[in-house]
Design a protein that fits this description.
Layout: H1 7-32, E1 55-57, H2 64-81, E2 84-90, H3 99-110, H4 114-117, E3 120-126, E4 132-136, H5 146-161, H6 166-181, H7 197-200, H8 204-235
Parallel strand pairs: 1-2, 2-3
Antiparallel strand pairs: 3-4
Helix pairs in contact: 2-6, 5-6
Length: about 240
């Protein structure tokens, strides 16, 4: 006897044949795309006072051209003033780690003794959270005061990070730190133009008024058209 498969069973088996390949694809896709691994201090190269490395871009967000400019700038600073600045960019921190704690641990790993720390400055950026940490030695504090440190973190670096402009953030930070640590006048944070939101966007009150007007027009049209259509539906259209 030939059995005829019902439409419901046919749809079921068709759906089953479709779901299995899709689930297999998603599983394989999930294995290929994994979250960026958190960075610990032991994942970074071991540097120290006098090291020729000035920028560690673990997140790979800085162009080669800008990396070369920053390295040359910081190398020249160290040669002329004995003040050393190193910058580190990481992809993300461990969930229980803070940027300040990470910066302090890395600073003490690279410069374990007080004599090595005195003329050092370390700037760290986390590209996931856009948090910034800065640690400096005792000798540097006379030039790089607390107010400048706060401004570098919350303005010089933070402004470009709003739009994920990592190259600009590092270049601006390098320019400002080099100027200050060379005993030159502080150039200050970058100038940021504030947007005039009132002139750019329609206010909520104007939007509500506009929407109300539309609803009134629609209701009036319906109130006129519906009775006419109903009347002609029952009595017939003229000429018929």
């Amino acid at each position: 006897m030939i059995q005829i498969q019902t439409g419901r069973n046919s749809n079921y088996f068709g759906l089953k044949r479709l779901i299995i390949p899709v689930l297999s694809f998603l599983f394989a896709f999930g294995l290929l795309i994994t979250p960026a691994q958190a960075t610990g201090i032991y994942d970074l190269p071991v540097l120290g006072s006098g090291s020729s490395t000035w920028l560690v871009d673990q997140a790979d967000v800085i162009s080669l051209a800008n990396e070369g400019k920053i390295n040359n700038q910081l190398k020249k600073l160290a040669k002329q003033t004995d003040n050393e600045v190193r910058m580190v960019i990481i992809s993300r921190l461990n969930f229980d780690e803070t940027i300040d704690n990470f910066t302090d641990q890395l600073f003490e790993r690279w410069y374990p003794t007080p004599s090595e720390q005195v003329n050092q400055t370390l700037l760290v950026i986390d590209t996931l959270s856009h948090n910034v940490g800065l640690r400096r030695g005792e000798k540097v504090k006379s030039l790089l005061g607390d107010d400048i440190v706060e401004s570098v973190i919350s303005q010089t670096v933070a402004y470009p990070l709003r739009d994920a402009k990592y190259n600009q953030a590092m270049m601006d930070a390098s320019d400002r730190l080099v100027a200050v640590l060379s005993a030159q006048p502080d150039p200050g944070p970058p100038q940021v133009e504030e947007l005039n939101i009132e002139s750019t966007f329609t206010s909520a009150e104007e939007t509500d008024d506009f929407n109300s007007t539309i609803w009134v027009v629609v209701i009036l049209v319906l109130a006129t058209v519906i009775p006419m259509v109903t009347y002609f539906w029952y009595v017939g259209f003229p000429g018929k």
